[in-house]
Design brief:
Blueprint (H helix, E strand, L loop, with lengths): L6 H4 L3 H6 L4 H16 L10 E4 L7 H4 L6 E5 L2 H10 L6 E4 L12 E6 L9 H11 E12 L4 H9 L10 E3 L9 E3 L1 H10 L4 E8 L10 H19 L6 E7 L1
Parallel strand pairs: 1-2, 1-4, 2-3, 4-5
Antiparallel strand pairs: 5-9, 6-7, 8-9
């Protein structure tokens, strides 16, 4: 089985990452992007089932809830799923503990599959994408966010170091722990693997968290930066500008 990150084994608290630190800009930026993508889909998609792979404690469930009634979260952290059950008592999605490389669902179960802030913990995109393709219904959609290796700051910093071949590499692995994985992928590599997995349609849709910085953590700058974020997500996707790229595949 390909390697992934086990938050429970690592003792990592994903809830604290979002709630105890100033991540509001990134959180809202991702919600803006998700709503844009969902609003672009055919209405009949929302009559089916949706699953959020690596959805953790359900950070984004309040956004998916606006579009889907039948929602499922899959995660390999039982602690996160237990917290999701506690946080979403009134309208809790289905919660499933599983390794996402081998999903416990029948073929063509879901109309929509999403995965945000997960792919940087995945070392085998092709096989994971094939598993997503398997559980998607015909003409279903896969929305996936991937940490962008070739974002503007990374290219600029490597150019200063004289590393002009950085952008040609498929991925960059950040050493974060003995057990964990943090991999940034190039958009070309992601699109190639979506097509290898069988998706008849795959494209970069949005560049997200484009103005994430120390300024975005300051309340005074939050609203204007989010305004710029909203305006530039589609345009900046064409040049891989931001640290996060959203892709959309169709079976």
């Amino acid at each position: 089985m390909p390697k992934t990150t086990d938050y429970d084994k690592e003792g990592y608290n994903y809830f604290d990452y979002w709630k105890k630190f100033n991540r509001e800009y990134s959180d809202i930026s991702e919600r803006i992007a998700i709503k844009k993508i969902l609003r672009s889909l055919p209405k009949e998609i929302f009559e089916g089932r949706a699953v959020d792979l690596g959805g953790s404690f359900g950070r984004l469930d309040s956004t998916y809830r606006q579009f889907f009634k039948d929602r499922t979260i899959v995660d390999n952290s039982q602690k996160s799923l237990d917290l999701a059950k506690e946080l979403h008592k009134e309208n809790c999605p289905n919660l499933v503990y599983s390794d996402i490389y081998k999903l416990p669902f029948e073929n063509e179960t879901f109309s929509f599959v999403s995965s945000v802030r997960v792919m940087h913990h995945i070392e085998d995109l092709e096989n994971l994408f094939k598993e997503v393709h398997r559980v998607l219904k015909k003409d279903g959609f896969f929305m996936v966010e991937v940490a962008n290796k070739n974002h503007f700051k990374a290219i600029f910093k490597n150019a200063l170091k004289g590393n002009f071949h950085f952008s040609k590499e498929e991925k960059f692995v950040q050493p974060i722990s003995k057990e964990g994985l943090f991999i940034n992928y190039s958009s070309k590599f992601v699109l190639e693997n979506l097509k290898k997995a069988g998706f008849k349609y795959a494209e970069k849709t949005l560049s997200v968290s484009n103005f994430r910085s120390k300024f975005s953590e300051i309340k005074f700058f939050l609203k204007p930066l989010l305004g710029l974020e909203d305006l530039t997500q589609k345009i900046f996707a064409k040049i891989d500008f931001g640290p996060s790229i959203f892709y959309l595949g169709r079976k």
